Amino acid sequence: MQKYIISIESRLRAISSEQGKVTADDGMEILDKYLPLTSTQEVEQFDKMMENDHFKNIYVQFIKRIGGRDFKDHVNRSLPRIFTNELGKECSYVGLRGNYKLQNFNFIRAFIETIMVQNSSTLHNVEKCVGEWFRLSNQRHKRMEKIQNNELKCFTRNLN
């Protein structure tokens, strides 16, 4: 009986110590409302929400949970969950060629910092990979449109 009581007490201590931490599922439904971002207005609104520490912690946990084999894989798996390709083709990390500049947004800084820490990578390498992802957004967008058009053609042929 004594061992059973000690076991219960240790579980209660573990539960009480976990209450202050953000778990993987805690608040993820909040991010589902906002992500992926589809417009520059949504980017600015999302960045304002990063001023809230709880929201920022949820976002960082979201990025960590996606993971990857290395920093490149982590970036390439995470960014499609944050940005649509349609928005991505209007943006660039440093704002080249008149594109919407993302470099100074808090959620991008948190993203890059999380990737760096999770994958023991350098700032330069992660920034370069993020920039490349945005550079290729137009190509991915066109490819997806082509696939969707082909699927629509097949669907309409099957109806006739």
UniProtKB/TrEMBL annotation:
It comes from the Eukaryota. InterPro entries: DUF4806. Residues 34-112 form the DUF4806 domain. Pfam families: DUF4806 (PF16064). PANTHER family: SI:CH211-262H13.3-RELATED (PTHR34153:SF2), SI:CH211-262H13.3-RELATED-RELATED (PTHR34153). This is DUF4806 domain-containing protein.
